[in-house]
Amino acid sequence: MPPTLASVVRTTALHLTVLAGADHLERPVRWVHTSELDDPAPFLEGGELLLTTGIKLGKGAAELEAYVHRLADAGVVGLGLGVGLSHREVPQALVEAAAQRGLPLLRVPEATPFIAISKAVSAALAAEQYEAVTTSFEAQEELTRAALGKDGTTAVVRRLAARLGGWAALYDGSGALSAVAPDWAARRAGRLAAEVDRLRRRPAPSSAALQGRAGTIDTADEDYVVVQSLGADRRPRGFLAVGTEDRITPTERYVLNAAVALLTLTLERSRELRQAEERMGAALLRMVLAGEVGTARQVAAGLFGGLPEGTVRVLVAAAGPGPEAAEALGELGDRAENAGGKVGEKLLVAREDGAHGPRLMVLALDNGSVHRACLGAVEEHEGLALGVSAPAALEDAGTAHAQAERALAVAQRGGRRTVDHEEVGAGSLLPLLGEEAVTAFAEGLLRPLREHDRTARGDLVASLRAWLSRHGQWDAAAADLGVHRHTLRYRMRRVEELLGRSLDDTDVRMELWLALRSGEE
């Protein structure tokens, strides 16, 4: 801690007397400045103990009051008046002005040179800096040993909390809490989910500072909280939050920065290991998709503890253009792996850059944690499309992969986030087609009929719809329209003339029905 006015006053060799502002002696002293100017404010930075003999101070109460106000406004933490030269004693008007403004006023006896006060403060500042450096080195060594130990990141979090005299929490790349110390701080750390989520959407490294109720923490505690994202390549790999009763000091800031650096290195090292695991996992996934399930089981048993067993699904995700979509695809893979890791659920993931951009393949248990995490992640991020296969046995993963690819193609054409294979194989075709493409097709095909209906007698569009819905049965369609069947025959001939196409052609009927139905969707 920097020296305070109280510690300066307690230095008995200085023989200082407090005449005003005794309630504000805990203010830190950043420097000692001597000035005989009647307005030294332009030469001050704030945090100084100002010393003067008062040679140019005015005699009137108004002048002295103005002088005190100038010093207080400039951020001076205390005023020391040396007596015995221009003033035999400190003017009472100066004492009253300082008391009114809450500015500590010190009487400096003639026997105490100003240089003695400067030396005392300088020595205290040097001691503070030495202590900060020493403490920082000790903390770095302690945190480094913790990081290299068996508990790794969890040990770093515990040591950091102890060093700061508060609490610390570590979150993974998805924002889920992975370590907290002490244990009682879990609820406080959980309240930071929204703030962590905001940092998750910003490039790393970035940070945010919160203060008790003034921040986003809904708690009766007045903690000062700092949240820092961890990552070396702009994408956050994790997040660190610390809470302390008071604002962290410069020394504590050094300790925090050391912890951030160590955790970042640890996460990046873990990322490299994960990348190696991902490459092996991708190779296993391709073996499974190729039908080599037996061989894949033997390899996975030693590397990953086995493959997903039971009913599985294959999910294929693709990113749209732009770096943000590609980053979202990477985050989707992280979310899938984190979800599986939390509950011990097996999965296989493969990332690849194809001709149509980056893609992600995931093989996971049907409706398991990984499956649900992927669906949630795609809904949160624009620019991603996901195709999901039907439930299948592991031996049928190749067929499931083809289903997921077809579902993904439908999602991309239709501008949809997620398409399940069941939607492709059942129900109406229209929702699976691109809305813009269908609309343009329908407008172009039916334009001659609609232009006719606006300018001539006979509702050709309605007549065509009725005739097609009745599968070409003249009497039934005419009855639906309330016209004679000869009238309907005339209208259908007119439709053929305007379109230049025969209604006897099954393909023409199908296209016309699709165009008419698209206007109803």
TrEMBL record:
<feature type="domain" description="Purine catabolism PurC-like">
    <location>
        <begin position="8"/>
        <end position="125"/>
    </location>
</feature>
<dbReference type="InterPro" id="IPR051448">
    <property type="entry name" value="CdaR-like_regulators"/>
</dbReference>
<feature type="domain" description="PucR C-terminal helix-turn-helix">
    <location>
        <begin position="460"/>
        <end position="517"/>
    </location>
</feature>
<dbReference type="Pfam" id="PF13556">
    <property type="entry name" value="HTH_30"/>
</dbReference>
<protein>
    <submittedName>
        <fullName>PucR family transcriptional regulator</fullName>
    </submittedName>
</protein>
<dbReference type="InterPro" id="IPR042070">
    <property type="entry name" value="PucR_C-HTH_sf"/>
</dbReference>
<dbReference type="InterPro" id="IPR012914">
    <property type="entry name" value="PucR_dom"/>
</dbReference>
<dbReference type="Pfam" id="PF07905">
    <property type="entry name" value="PucR"/>
</dbReference>
<dbReference type="InterPro" id="IPR025736">
    <property type="entry name" value="PucR_C-HTH_dom"/>
</dbReference>
